[in-house]
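Practice problem: predict the structure.
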Amino acid sequence: MIRFVAPILAYHAVHPQRRDDVNVKPAHFAQQMAWLAQRGYRGVTLAEYGARSAKRGTTAQKLVALTFDDGYQDNLTYAWPILRQYGFRATIFMITEMVGAQTPHHQPWLEAYPDVPPQAYQYLTWAELRFLQSQGMEIGSHTCTHPLLDQVDHATQAYEVQESKAQLEAQLGTTISSFCYPAGHFTDETLALVRTAGYEQAVVTPWRRGLIRGGRYTQPRVGIYLEDDWRRFRFKVSPLFALYRTLRHHLARGS
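Answer:
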């Protein structure tokens, strides 16, 4: 039996000046959240999404899990007020060694867009992460340094998966249950490390064959990017796109 899967949306930056492809302009983000709210969607954290999915399934709930990768400060200054307006919550996947950093982990952006001020790439501080957590946002791990986990050795993978969780838990005083693989790169070894580290769920972008083998540790997301115009965004959240993704899930596992 095919069960439709409610979407998990993947954002990164929400900034008016950034022009790199992982950014979404605040006006566009506001339009997207308004559209979701008007159609009865409820924006939730990945942890809540996983808990509700496990209990009753997500077919009739009109849930949408909202996630942000890397931990840019604009998630607080631009995205959070919009989320709060609609009563939405989200998960921020933090690169722990970038907490409070002033420049992007992806340095080529500085050369590609020299007119964009470095402050546009600033990361959240520990105090800002604590504030967002106090407002119902979930903080998850995006490793310590954002390596491609399928291209590093076992010891490095273990450090990135386990140490990032330990740092977040020590600073935030709560259990960290959600993990995001940088750029969607992982191996079976990575999956085992994420499980044994104590995470409850993990997400992957982009979608590809074979994700089904990891179950809740390889949940596919729908990436929302600078290039996504209004029509493309609506398609990505539509039942038609959900059907397309669901069929791909079943084809991937041969059902």
